[in-house]
Amino acid sequence: MPKLGLQLYTLRDLLKEDFIGTLRKVSKIGYEGVEFAGYGDMSIRELRRAVDDLGLTPVSNHVPLAHLETKLDIVIEEAKELGISYIVCPFIAEDRRKDANDYRKLAALFNQVGEKLAQEGLKFAYHNHAFEFVKFNEQYALDALYQWTDLQFVQAELDVYWIEYAGESAVEYIKKYANRTELLHVKDMTNDDERFFAEVGSGCLNIPGILETAQASNILWYLVEQDVSRRNPLESVEMSYRYLSGIEK
Questions:
Q1: pTM for this structure?
Q2: 236: Cβ–Cβ under 8 A, 6 or more apart, which residues?
Q3: Of the four listed, 95, 191, 227, 229, which is most buried by Cβ atoms within 10 Å?
Q4: For 37-46, what is each residue's pLDDT tens digit?
Q5: SS3 state of residue 127
Q6: Name one GO molecular function term (predicted).
Q7: Mean pLDDT over residues 98-108, rounded?
């Protein structure tokens, strides 16, 4: 059964104030692991000591595309020192995704990055939003990207909220990429016209169906993320944890 982790971007403002103290609260809630969105001003050695002391697994890190292109050796060095297993590209700027040719270039880059990471014992994944659900030659850009990348070097970190926001089925996409998805972003959506971010289990997404499908695939980690919260974000991630830990039992 997949483990429960938290994408720390959700708590970005709190982390700026107190990185270690916020990690301590994440551990106290019950999360088993964390996905970083950068390390703030923390030294890797200090961060490694903190996650070890708190019993948190450092699962992955979201790394900007520019750093993958220009600082990959440093990214690898830090990941290995921290004990991270996955490096994830979290976003593509609009000027890098204008047409199918741009996605072909990205696919080639991702293959290179993924191969180098694999040589160092790390895995590489791409995290989707909704903008990849634009069609070039009758095919979604996201599907083209995975078609043009090597399965052994590029995984899919599927985000169920953004798949559904784009009008597609998270369940079907988990099935489609079951052979290359080990990390799943579990999120929810308000049941109104705004379709805003919601605590997991409080919105309109079919979370039980999504998790049932995920459990039948190769997913190792459910990573909770709430891009924006209208309550204290710690309260939000605790609500999501309680729901998910309850539904798993």
A1: 0.96
A2: 10, 199, 226, 229
A3: 229
A4: 999 989 999 9
A5: strand
A6: isomerase activity
A7: 98
